[in-house]
From TrEMBL:
<protein>
    <recommendedName>
        <fullName>Plant heme peroxidase family profile domain-containing protein</fullName>
    </recommendedName>
</protein>
<keyword id="KW-0560">Oxidoreductase</keyword>
<dbReference type="InterPro" id="IPR000763">
    <property type="entry name" value="Catalase_peroxidase"/>
</dbReference>
<keyword id="KW-0408">Iron</keyword>
<dbReference type="GO" id="GO:0042744">
    <property type="term" value="P:hydrogen peroxide catabolic process"/>
</dbReference>
<keyword id="KW-0349">Heme</keyword>
<dbReference type="GO" id="GO:0070301">
    <property type="term" value="P:cellular response to hydrogen peroxide"/>
</dbReference>
<keyword id="KW-0479">Metal-binding</keyword>
<dbReference type="InterPro" id="IPR019793">
    <property type="entry name" value="Peroxidases_heam-ligand_BS"/>
</dbReference>
<dbReference type="InterPro" id="IPR010255">
    <property type="entry name" value="Haem_peroxidase_sf"/>
</dbReference>
<comment type="similarity">
    <text>Belongs to the peroxidase family. Ascorbate peroxidase subfamily.</text>
</comment>
<dbReference type="GO" id="GO:0020037">
    <property type="term" value="F:heme binding"/>
</dbReference>
<dbReference type="InterPro" id="IPR002016">
    <property type="entry name" value="Haem_peroxidase"/>
</dbReference>
<dbReference type="GO" id="GO:0046872">
    <property type="term" value="F:metal ion binding"/>
</dbReference>
<dbReference type="GO" id="GO:0005829">
    <property type="term" value="C:cytosol"/>
</dbReference>
<keyword id="KW-0376">Hydrogen peroxide</keyword>
<dbReference type="Pfam" id="PF00141">
    <property type="entry name" value="peroxidase"/>
</dbReference>
Length: 173
């Protein structure tokens, strides 16, 4: 209900809400692998703010949200895999390497994505499991949101059209 109310304040209905969140979570990943915290604040060290207290403070040592992982196996490709993952897997609460509660696929065989920071001296591509945030999994607990997630999971054109229209609304209002 919190998600619905938050997006409604900006004039978005349920379909638009799911399209925006899913579209945003189709790309990229969360960043928060550093378990030691976010580091210096901008008013303390403007040039080095939020680099984290681990290693170099950049790349895999960065701390941003504290959540860690991609939503999809190909986080540089816009598609409806985010929705397919939500409906096709069971999700269990886990703690991220950054100390935040997030959700992982039940069992050991969940989908994996290449990690964005590879060891340049290695010939092995490292991977990490996909994840979801509580806001993502909450879509499944609400019957209206769940219907939209299921529709988008099996109808990429419907999702693409909804996202395109909602993105236009978001950026022009």
């Amino acid at each position: 209900e919190h998600t619905r109310l938050t997006f409604a304040l900006k004039g978005f209905n349920d379909t638009e809400t799911v399209a925006l969140v899913g579209g945003g979570h189709s790309f990229g990943k969360t960043h928060g692998a550093c378990p030691l915290g976010f580091g210096s604040l901008p008013n303390e060290e403007p040039a080095n703010a939020y680099q984290g207290e681990c290693g170099t403070g950049i790349a895999s040592d960065v701390y941003q949200s504290g959540f860690e992982g991609p939503w999809t196996t190909n986080p540089i490709h816009f598609d409806n895999e985010y929705f397919m993952n939500l409906v096709n897997f069971d999700w269990v609460q886990e703690t991220s390497t950054g100390g935040k509660t997030q959700w992982g696929v039940v069992g050991q065989g969940g989908p994996r994505a290449p990690t964005p920071f590879q060891d340049e001296n290695s010939t092995i591509v490292s991977t990490q499991q996909i994840m979801m945030l509580t806001t993502d999994v909450a879509f499944l607990a609400d019957s209206s949101f769940r219907r939209i997630v299921q529709k988008f999971a099996f109808d990429v054109e419907s999702f693409s059209t909804a996202f395109e229209n909602t993105w236009y609304k978001l950026t022009t209002q």
